[in-house]
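Ops channel
N.P.: pipeline sanity check, posting one input/output pair.
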């Protein structure tokens, strides 16, 4: 159920993906009167967010929520919430309702229940999630070998969010404590879009498309399932 869209230039990718996201959200607004857009952090999707923020949509009826979050305050440069607020929740999209993950609790496992309660107010099925992937095969904050990973990967779980403590690496950086959507929650979306750039990540993606343990390359949980259509948008 994975459709792949490869582009020669990133500008072409972001133009196409902006149009696709606009269509997905418009269809949900027309059909359901509302839409839920899950978004990820990192520098890669920023051009998409900036472009999408200008879209002519009924943003007051759209809920924007994080896929995952590092357990840091908004003032920290690593904060996904801060990134989304300055890149997406501007222009027309500033009218959207935002759902962050970070609470005032000092640990992710302490704040998880509060975030879980908020996320349970989002209408299901969720409309669409935009996720990335690291060169270690993680997606959202589902990191190989992380504490809490087994719980987060349970396919039939009703849990929407999970606390994760990743093994520190060049991919995780210093912020190993995270809150993330569970695999089960991601599979409650009507559409899943994987946004990748670079030959190195494409090679990992192609490896993940082959059978193997989900725990080793957690993105396999999205690629080897029949519940939700998955689309890859890639450019060098």
């Amino acid at each position: 159920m994975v459709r792949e869209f490869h582009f020669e230039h990133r500008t072409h990718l972001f133009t196409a993906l902006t149009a696709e996201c606009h269509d997905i959200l418009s269809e949900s607004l027309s059909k359901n009167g509302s839409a839920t857009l899950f978004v990820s952090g990192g520098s890669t999707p920023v051009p998409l967010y900036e472009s999408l923020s200008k879209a002519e949509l009924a943003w007051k009826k759209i809920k924007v929520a994080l896929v995952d979050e590092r357990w840091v305050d908004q003032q920290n440069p690593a904060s996904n919430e801060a990134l989304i607020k300055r890149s997406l929740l501007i222009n027309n999209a500033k009218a959207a309702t935002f759902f962050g993950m970070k609470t005032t609790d000092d640990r992710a496992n302490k704040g998880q229940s509060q975030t879980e309660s908020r996320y349970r107010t989002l209408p299901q099925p969720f409309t669409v999630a935009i996720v990335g992937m690291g060169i270690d095969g993680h997606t959202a904050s589902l990191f190989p070998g992380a504490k809490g990973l087994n719980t987060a990967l349970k396919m039939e779980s009703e849990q929407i969010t999970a606390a994760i403590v990743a093994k520190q690496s060049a991919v995780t950086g210093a912020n190993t404590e995270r809150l993330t959507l569970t695999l089960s929650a991601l599979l409650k979306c009507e559409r899943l879009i994987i946004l990748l750039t670079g030959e190195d990540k494409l090679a990992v993606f192609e490896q993940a498309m082959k059978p193997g343990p989900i725990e080793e390359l957690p993105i396999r949980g999205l690629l080897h399932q029949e519940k939700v259509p998955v689309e890859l948008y890639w450019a060098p």
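N.P.: looks fine end to end. The chain has a mean pLDDT of 98.
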